[in-house]
Design goal:
single chain, 39% helix, globular, Nucleotidyltransferase, domain 5, alpha/beta, 5-stranded mixed sheet
């Protein structure tokens, strides 16, 4: 099964576009892990045409808070409909069980023993200061953390988090995440016919 884990950084804020709609924001960079060749890559907005064939060859895309944020923003640029690709949003899976959203950093620290290397707001300022490589590195670190949390959840059927200083285990049924019966066929909106 070919999986693409992804994360997006933006070049602007909701307050600047006058809306809480992620599709109103502008993408600065997207970072991905492609299990097909086990590589990590980043793509700037102008390089997105190179990304589409990678997404289209994926059996599944994986993100964190991606259904609410990343996919609507990325779909703004995509010539087809990304909802046709099987998608796992780890935050959504956690919310189904816990009943509320929880930050990636909270899950990463308790589950993996590591923290994110920054915050999305910092990435916007780095971008505006021309520090594109810093934004790419930060984005790829989030992709790596998301991938590691996904792999942990698949292996252990749980993730961990701290609440009130107490380490808690959150059971997740990850057994069906890679169920091939629910896979859609590959889409080919940008590939030649």
């Amino acid at each position: 099964m070919r999986k693409v884990v992804f994360d997006i950084e933006t070049s602007n804020l909701f307050s600047e576009v006058g809306s809480n709609d992620p599709s109103k924001l502008d993408l600065s960079v997207i970072g991905i892990y492609d299990s097909g060749d086990e590589t990590y890559q980043t793509y700037f907005q102008e390089e997105l045409p190179k990304l589409w064939p990678v997404i289209e060859r994926a059996d599944m895309i994986i993100g964190y808070n991606s259904e609410h944020f990343d996919l609507p923003l990325l779909n703004k640029y995509y010539p087809g409909d990304l909802s046709q690709v099987k998608h796992i949003d780890l935050m959504k899976e956690i919310k189904k069980v816990l009943g509320r959203r929880i930050k990636l950093d909270t899950i990463a620290e308790a589950t993996l023993g590591k923290k994110k290397t920054g915050e999305g707001l910092q990435a916007i300022y780095w971008w505006r200061n021309g520090e594109k490589e810093k934004v790419c590195k930060y984005c790829l670190e989030d992709v790596k953390i998301t991938k590691e949390i996904y792999d942990f959840a698949r292996a252990e059927n749980c993730v961990k988090y701290r609440e009130g200083g107490i380490l808690k285990t959150l059971p997740l049924d990850a057994s069906k995440w890679e169920d091939s019966s629910s896979l859609t066929s590959a889409i080919t909106h940008t590939l030649p016919f």
